[in-house]
TrEMBL record:
This is Cytochrome bc1 complex Rieske iron-sulfur subunit. The lineage of its organism: Bacteria, Bacillati, Actinomycetota, Actinomycetes, Kitasatosporales. Keywords: 2Fe-2S, Cell membrane, Disulfide bond, Electron transport, Iron, Iron-sulfur, Membrane, Metal-binding, Oxidoreductase, Respiratory chain, Transmembrane, Transmembrane helix, Transport. Residues 1-42 are annotated as: Disordered. CDD domains: Rieske. The cytochrome bc1 complex is composed of a cytochrome b (QcrB), the Rieske iron-sulfur protein (QcrA) and a diheme cytochrome c (QcrC) subunit. GO terms for molecular function: 2 iron, 2 sulfur cluster binding; metal ion binding; monooxygenase activity; oxidoreductase activity, acting on paired donors, with incorporation or reduction of molecular oxygen.
């Protein structure tokens, strides 16, 4: 063939029937080689080998269950501040290491058991599957269901009860790891929201001077802030405790007190109420001596201290809790117990 033939476009006909070529009919020019002959596995012909595989799989599922139990036990028993030396990692947090190790073993052994099950005991016959359009026909859907049933039969799940039971046990226990992790969202509230440091015999300490409060220290028209005896700013939980125990003390004319219980729980017109607003927990600090109203500076919730500290304006949901007080032998104001109800905002929604 000359260069003139190429320039002129006179090319010879391409041969057909070669490997990789497609004939005019659109069918491959080479025959389908098919699948190689099936080679049976040892477990297919030796029941003892199959039983050993079954025991190995069951061992892995059982190990997963034990690791999950170990995860939960580690979370409960090991202190989160414990540091240990583990070669070759060096000094590590014992809780984190135990949680990672046990959860990793639990998940890995489930996966390893499933893979070993599929490779040794499930059907080993090669099954070709042709490509089909995305939309499945009714016949295809029936075929899928039939294949699923055949796969379930090939899995020998019904006959290999040891595998079935240990697998279900491992799969049932592993989710407990996630449930236990919810415990780490924070400390359980228990009944901490229902109690403060106030108790019978606790003296009322002036928050500004740090001295016990005598009835003569509280004059009509004044507002005094108090904390429980024994609470110091250096305490590690000072902020947590003061957020519940902060107290405001006012002195009213006994004739101005409308609520009988409020009068009985006070001392010569001196009444003590929680300083924590029942809306969102802001500290109340604004007092109108003529109206006996206290105002929260955050959202203007207003409470009437002459009428059981009930809400007369604003978004607060319930009155301020009152602290029952008296005078001790030394002439200082003291508490006769804790608040009669939990302090703070939205307690009933939270607790």
């Amino acid at each position: 063939m000359s260069s003139d033939d190429i320039k002129g476009g006179n090319l010879p006909d391409r041969p057909t029937g070669h490997s990789g070529e497609v004939e005019e009919t659109g069918t491959p020019s080479f025959p389908d080689p098919g699948l190689p002959p099936h080679q049976p596995r040892r477990q297919d012909i030796d029941e003892d080998a199959a039983a050993r595989s079954e025991r190995a799989i069951a061992f892995m599922f059982t190990l997963s269950m034990l690791a999950t139990i170990g995860f939960i036990a580690s979370f409960v028993v090991i202190d989160r501040t414990t540091i240990v030396h583990i070669w070759p990692f060096g000094h590590v947090n014992a809780l984190n290491f135990a949680l990672g190790l046990t959860l990793g073993v639990a998940l890995f052994t489930i996966g390893a058991g499933a893979v070993h099950w599929a490779r040794t005991l499930m059907s080993g016959h090669e099954i070709p599957q042709e490509r089909h359009p995305i939309a499945a026909s009714p016949e295809l859907r029936q075929q899928v269901l039939a294949d699923f049933a055949e796969g379930a039969k090939d899995s020998v799940l019904g006959r290999r009860k040891l595998i079935r039971n240990t697998m279900f046990g491992a799969l049932a226990l592993v989710p407990l790891s996630g449930v236990v992790l919810l415990r780490d969202l924070g400390p359980l509230p228990e009944d901490k929201l229902r109690h403060t440091l106030w108790g019978k015999g606790k003296q009322l300490i002036n928050q500004n001077t740090g001295l016990p409060i005598k009835p003569s220290d509280v004059t009509v028209g004044s507002l005094v802030f108090a904390v429980p005896e024994g609470l110091e700013e250096e305490d590690h939980d000072f902020l947590e405790q003061i957020a519940k125990a902060a107290l405001m003390i006012v002195r009213l004319n006994p004739d101005d007190i409308k609520d009988k219980r409020e009068r009985d729980w006070g001392y010569e017109g001196i009444v003590a109420f929680s300083k924590i607003c029942t809306h969102v927990g802001c500290p109340i600090s604004l007092y109108e001596s003529q109206t006996h109203h206290v105002l929260c500076p955050c959202h203007q919730s207003t409470f009437d201290l002459a009428d059981g500290a009930r809400v007369i304006f604003g978004p607060a949901g319930h009155p301020l809790p009152q602290l029952r007080i008296s005078v001790n032998e030394e002439g200082n104001l003291q508490a006769l117990g804790d608040f009669d109800e939990p302090v703070g905002p939205s307690f009933w929604e939270r607790g």
